[in-house]
TrEMBL record:
Alphabetized InterPro entries for the sequence: FCR-like (IPR023998)
Stated name of the protein: Aerobactin uptake cluster protein
GO molecular function, one term: 2 iron, 2 sulfur cluster binding
Source organism, top-level taxon: Bacteria
Length: 238
């Protein structure tokens, strides 16, 4: 396939996961969140929008939600690219579209692709997204405290959540294979193996389930409850 054809598959596969993950190959119009830009003020505006729409939840929730919104698309695209396309775009240079209280939609400004084995691609993604996410953390740190340990826990949970989604889309994949892939992803991001303990085999279904190491704090929003994979749930406490 030509490079553009790979992107067509990526964009179609993305929309099949969720319509919010809508991509395009387009020239840079100067808008959106991109690693080359000064994103601090733009991200702060997102944070402030969340503080207005969920004022009761508090600063810890607003910060956690802001971080999760920044990272969810790049992580999903990384998994789709590695396992569906067997190639990856220049993911560090992803351009994310920001809306009122949400991040949805992405663009790439070049059709460059990186080819390699599964293990090689995961290693490259780890380096690229580590640099991208650190740029986000530095941008946020200009207006509030955001510890590396805090963001690393959320990144680990985001990666392991995609492992669980892989199993849902491809139920023939064995638990052993998925656990092996999870370790590759954690290694690529230089995250400790202790996060693997968050993946447990459900006794009833014999499939993996995730118990996060971090809480997204959504239960602090009016009318919301603890998530099924929340470590605060009594059944998930170790």
């Amino acid at each position: 396939m030509q490079n553009n054809e790979y992107f067509e598959v990526l964009f179609e596969s993305s929309k099949q996961v969720t319509p919010y993950l809508s991509g395009q190959l387009a020239a840079d119009n100067g808008e959106g969140i991109h690693i080359s830009r000064h994103n601090s003020e733009t991200i702060q505006q997102l944070y402030q929008q969340l503080s207005l729409s969920s004022a009761e939840a508090g600063r810890a929730y607003w910060l956690t939600r802001t971080w999760d919104l920044l990272c969810w698309q790049p992580i999903y695209i990384a998994f789709i690219s590695v396992y569906k396309l067997n190639v990856i775009p220049d993911i560090k240079n992803i351009n994310q579209s920001i809306h009122s209280g949400f991040i949805s939609g992405y663009r790439f400004h070049t059709s460059a692709l990186i080819f390699g084995s599964n293990d090689e691609l995961i290693a490259v993604v780890g380096l690229q997204l580590t640099a991208l996410f650190e740029s986000y953390r530095q941008a946020i740190s200009q207006w509030t405290r955001i510890r590396p340990g805090f963001t690393k826990h959320l990144i680990a949970d985001g990666l392991l959540n995609c492992i669980i989604k892989m199993q849902a889309y491809a139920p023939t994949l064995s638990n052993a294979y998925l656990l092996g892939q999870a370790k590759l992803w954690l290694d690529a991001f230089e995250l400790p193996d202790k996060h693997l303990s968050g993946l447990q085999v459900d006794a009833t279904s014999n499939t993996l389930k995730l118990v996060r190491t971090s809480c997204c704090l959504v239960y602090k929003c009016t009318g919301r409850n603890l998530c099924a994979d929340c470590p605060r749930l009594p059944d998930n406490k170790r």
